[in-house]
Amino acid sequence: MSDTSDVHKLTGAYAVDAVDELERARFEQHLAECEDCRAEVAELRETAALLAEDTAVAPPAALRESVLAGISQVRPLPPEVRAPAPRATHEHRAGRRAWMPFLVAAALAVLVGIGALIVQPWAGEDDVKRLTAAEQVLQADDAQEVFLDLGEAGRATVTRSKSHDRAVISTEDMVAAPDGKDYELWLMSPDGAFTSAGLMPDEADQTLVLDGSAADAAAVGITVEPDGGSKQPTSDPIALFDLTEAA
Amino acid sequence: MDHVRPVPDGAPQGAPSAGDAPDLAALLHRAGLGDEAAFAAFYDATSARAYGLALRVVRNPAHAEEVTQEAYLDAWRSSTRYDPERGSAAGWLLTIVHRKAVDRVRSVEAATTRDQTWNRESAPTEHDQTSEEAHASLDAQRVRNAVSTLTDVQRQAVELTYFGGYTHTEVATLLDVPLGTAKTRIRDGLIRLRDLMGVAS
Questions:
Q1: Under 8 Å between Cβ of A220 and A197
Q2: B96 and B28 share a domain?
Q3: Per residue in B148-187, pLDDT tens?
Q4: Which of A19, A54, A176, B18 is least crowded, fewest Cβ atoms below 10 Å from its Cβ?
Q5: Which residue of B has its CA nearest to A18?
């Protein structure tokens, strides 16, 4: 669909945030491997920022106070430590660290929040036969599966078991969420209301149990949300798994 | 008492930056070490550009304030991640502001018109800008001169994306051109501005 020269042309649109979330995620994958595009994006961002010289407006004085009050309550992040990025399924990606400090930070934050959710390190030590929560759903007699191919963004399967009242998502080759963003999972009720089912860590391949009761869900959705997630979706889903038609 | 040496009035010795503005990169560096006064100085030197950009994109002053505040909080938090080798401190900050402003415009729309096709009230004429607020600095004049050399289509594409917050796909539809064309115009326009304004990495 798009040849290589086409990919490079997205530098301008990317530099001015004129891309949708999926494009952003894909292009950031490309940037991790393309030195030329990284350099061009940096220059074009710098250029675009100069356009703001002509729109300067003094902010209300109260804003200064709010900002200064805000920062006094937060510690600056620790400096970047030169560790490999958390997703290392394919080849070694030397360029990744240099490019996406926010992404790495986001991924680490998410892993801390969610890591304990499924795989308890001690589970199975006592009882090797015990199935993880994910396995119970995946192996349930009433498991329903919906597979979605997200193109260059990867593939994902949602499995729901009504008897276990849980849903599980498994991803393959999923691109990392865009810079400063997280993937958030949602359970959609038959009347179209979305309930957050947790964040997805930035892992290309993973199996994750969704938070919340899934027996009555009509669909599972994934949206791209600001770091840390949202209470309600702030954008349209990048993937929607329709469970009403699942076998 | 020893001899007293007069302090020269001229430029301080070893000033790291040749610019006239406060050395923003140095202020950010100090902010990363927890220096709130340095960050306040950074704010004072950049807030008109940050707020003006946010206001231009989101249009609503209350939203613009929120966006600006969030951006500064992010800048404070990630001040240790700023790398002067990769660009100016002002550019870095404004990149954060712009991203947040665009996210705000889009999420407000997603919340209010989730099911509708996008369709903004304000028609995308490129002359609806708030020039009364334009700040008449030399840099601003330089930017205006550079922008005036763009072709109409390049200028439209750059303004609709940077100030309008539209995606290149939306711009293609707005300007009724093929997808690849909008993408190329945005890039060509920015490259031309880059060359005229002497931005180099």
A1: yes
A2: yes
A3: 999 998 999 999 999 999 999 999 999 999 988 999 999 9
A4: B18
A5: B167
